[in-house]
Specification:
By secondary structure, this protein is mostly beta strands. 7% of the residues lie in helices and 54% in strands. It has one helix at 8-26; strands spanning 51-61, 68-79, 84-93, 100-117, 120-133, 149-161, 164-176, 194-207, 218-230, 235-248, 252-264, 272-282. The protein is globular, with a radius of gyration of 19 Å.
């Protein structure tokens, strides 16, 4: 399997997307915005005592075979306090022609800083994830959300400005062997287990213009830039992911996103495709 070729055109597409991103982030700053992103978590937490159920569906097309891989990720979230929330999820995939369970992960986030003002706030949080996986390791990219065993630790900062939410994160991750599947060694004999992830997300509340009832459906548009740099290989990837989000009755959520590779020197099996998530929250589920 050959590495993905670096694409100069990918960087040009990113540059062309910046004006649209700036417009998205600067228009119509009047009412409260959502800060619920698709591929990243903001610094804010779900309300204490809340339990959330998620079902993630990933349809990613393999570069060299044209086959569409389906990954199913059921997830449970809990708001333990106003500062601490935890997630637990399972990874299922049909990549080897049968739907099988491949592993799971535990995620925790601690909000340690907050400045709250009228119709805006700034928050920072630290987070960590540990994942376990028994699937074969088939790419240089480290992906702890369904592909690799390992851990990740990082920080995220989120700014809410009325209808607009901006968020950015930086994390360090280290992969381990997937049970009997050893992490691959590079041509110079170095094990490429360590990487840095970096993200930038921007979202805007498009509807309603004004709130009259909590049962109103919210429609959010957002774009996320997702990158990784492997410190051993000195290789990278950079993706962009536009999405639309529906919040129903302030409890349920539907996300529809398309993740597109802008540039990459890391070998990746299936970097592009559609992601659909369904979510429902139970408020005051426990004390």
């Amino acid at each position: 399997m050959q590495p993905s070729d670096p694409k100069t055109s990918g960087w040009l597409k990113l540059l062309k997307s910046i004006p649209a991103l700036l417009i998205l982030c600067s228009t119509g700053i009047r009412a409260n915005a959502q800060e619920l992103f698709v591929f990243t978590e903001p610094a804010s937490n779900m309300a204490a005592g809340t339990v959330g159920l998620r079902l993630g569906n990933s349809f990613m097309k393999e570069l060299h075979t044209g086959k569409t891989n389906y990954h199913l990720i059921p997830e449970v979230m809990m708001g333990l306090s106003k500062k601490i929330m935890v997630h637990g999820d399972m990874f299922l995939s049909n990549r080897n022609n049968a739907m099988v369970s491949e592993g799971g992960s535990l995620y925790a986030k601690y909000r340690f800083y907050s400045i709250d003002e009228v119709q805006k706030h700034f928050r920072m949080a630290a987070y960590g994830r540990y994942s376990f996986n028994n699937a074969d390791i088939h790419q240089e990219e480290i992906n702890l959300y369904g592909h690799n065993t390992g851990w990740e630790g990082g920080a995220v900062a989120t700014q809410l400005l009325h209808k607009v939410a901006l968020s950015s994160s930086l994390s360090y991750l280290a992969a381990q062997d997937n049970r009997t599947y050893k992490f691959p060694v590079s041509t110079n004999g170095e094990i490429n287990r360590k990487a840095i992830n970096y993200t930038f997300s921007a979202g805007r509340l498009m509807y309603p213009e004004e709130y009259t009832d909590y049962k109103q459906t919210n429609i959010n548009l957002m774009v996320e830039v997702l990158g990784q740099y492997n410190t051993g290989l000195k290789k990278h990837y950079l993706d962009i992911a536009p999405s639309v989000q529906f919040i129903i009755n302030s409890r349920s959520r539907i996300d529809v996103a398309y993740r597109y590779q802008l540039a990459a020197s890391l070998r990746r099996t299936a970097p592009q495709g559609v992601f659909v998530r369904l979510e429902h929250n139970f408020f005051n589920a426990f004390k």
